[in-house]
Design goal:
The structure is a single chain. By secondary structure, this protein is α+β, with helices and mostly antiparallel strands. 41% of the residues lie in helices and 14% in strands. The protein has ten helices and seven strands. The longest helix has 24 residues.
Length: 318
C-alpha cells in the first residue's frame, strides 16, 4: 500500500516500587540483581532519559525499578491503539463514530495485556472518573480527524519495530507509529502525541525522536525519509520537518557521544542525578540522593579506581 507525499499525500492515502532496597536484599531481589546486564542498545526514550537525568536512566534500564502507570501515559497508549486499529477498516468506514466506538474495546484489551493499568481506577467504584477519562480519549481520537483524513491514507506500516547496528557497533531500536510511502518512493514518518505541541524554542527537542527514527531508516534502507511529522492531538497542531543527510549525521554523532557516556557510567557505576522541574513527576524520589534517598545496591561490576579492571560495585550514584 502506498500514499502520496507533500501536497498529494492526502490524495493518495513511538508506562512503564516500593521497597527496592529490601527487595534487593531478599533472595528474589538478589536473583534480580545478579540477572542485571549492561545496556546493549539505545532507543529514543532511553536516550532522552539519559539526557534528562543519568540516574533516571540507571533506575529504568539497569535497576529496572517499577513505576506506577499514569492516567496520561495510559491514555496515550489507548489512543495509539485506536489509531492503529482504525486502518484495519476499509477507507470509507474510517469515520469519527466508528473510531470512538473502538475506545472501550481497546481499553479492555489494554487491561488484559497490562493488568496494572486497572489500578488507576481502583478508587472509582461508580466508574465516573473512568467514564470521564475514556471520554477524553475519545475526544483526542476525534480531534485527529481534523488534522488528517484517514480515508485518504493507506499506511504501509503501523507500530513498526525498527532496529539497526551502526558501524561503531551501537544498536539503535524503536517503534514508529506510522510509515507512509508515496508512489514515487518518498517516505513519511508519523508520530502521534496526545499532549500539546511544544513552544517553538523546544521544537528541536521534540524532533529528536523523529530524527532518531529517520537515522535508523536511512541506515537500514539507504533512504532518507522525505518528511518527519508529529501530530499533537492535545493541541491540534502538526509539526513537520524535512531532514537531509547532514542532519542525520549530526544525530548519529550525538548518539555515539551519548552512548560513550552511558558506557562510562555503566563501567564506573557513577550515575549522577540531574535535578530539573520534571523531578516532581518522578516515581523514584525515594531512591534519589536529591530527595534524601539512597539508590539500591549497584548490580553490575564496576571499574576499579585507577585501573581498567572491573570489581563488584556497591555504590550507584554520587
Amino acid at each position: 500500500m502506498v500514499c502520496g507525499m507533500d501536497s498529494s499525500i492526502e490524495d493518495a492515502s513511538q508506562a512503564r516500587g516500593a521497597d527496592i532496597v529490601a527487595q534487593a536484599q531478599s533472595p528474589v531481589g538478589a536473583a534480580q540483581a545478579s540477572a542485571a546486564v549492561p545496556p546493549a542498545s539505545l532507543s529514543p526514550s532511553r536516550a532522552s532519559d539519559f539526557m534528562q537525568c543519568p540516574l533516571l536512566y540507571r533506575f529504568r534500564v539497569i535497576d529496572r525499578l517499577p513505576e506506577k502507570p499514569s492516567e496520561a501515559a495510559t491514555r496515550g497508549t489507548l489512543v495509539h491503539a485506536v489509531l492503529e486499529r482504525l486502518f484495519d477498516a476499509p477507507a470509507a468506514e474510517r469515520t469519527v463514530p466508528w473510531a470512538r466506538s473502538l475506545v472501550p474495546g481497546q481499553w479492555d484489551r489494554l487491561r488484559e495485556s497490562r493488568p496494572e493499568v486497572g489500578e488507576l481506577f481502583a478508587d472509582d467504584p461508580e466508574g465516573e472518573r473512568l467514564a470521564r477519562w475514556l471520554g477524553e480519549a475519545e475526544q483526542l481520537v476525534e480531534r485527529w480527524f481534523t488534522l488528517e483524513d484517514p480515508s485518504r491514507l493507506e499506511p504501509v506500516e503501523r507500530e513498526l519495530f525498527v532496529e539497526t547496528e551502526l558501524e561503531s557497533g551501537l544498536r539503535l531500536r524503536g517503534i514508529i507509529d506510522r510509515v507512509d510511502v508515496a508512489a514515487t518512493g518518498e517516505v513519511r514518518i508519523v508520530d502521534y502525541k496526545t499532549g500539546k505541541a511544544p513552544r517553538p524554542e523546544y521544537a528541536e527537542g521534540a524532533l529528536f525522536q523523529m530524527k532518531f527514527y529517520a537515522l535508523v531508516v536511512w541506515r537500514l534502507k539507504n533512504v532518507v525519509p522525505r518528511r518527519l511529522q508529529l501530530v499533537y492531538l492535545g493541541s491540534g497542531d502538526v509539526l513537520t520537518y524535512d531532514p537531509v543527510p547532514a542532519d542525520l549525521q549530526r544525530v548519529e554523532r550525538k548518539l555515539l557521544a551519548l552512548w560513550e557516556a552511558i558506557r562510562e557510567a555503566t563501567e564506573s557505576g557513577v550515575w549522577r542525578p540531574r535535578p530539573t522541574k520534571l523531578c516532581g513527576w518522578c516515581d523514584h524520589q525515594a531512591h534519589c540522593p536529591e530527595f534524601g534517598g539512597t539508590p539500591p545496591p549497584y548490580p553490575l561490576p564496576v571499574r576499579s579506581a585507577g585501573s581498567g579492571d572491573l570489581a563488584q560495585g556497591r555504590m550507584g550514584a554520587d
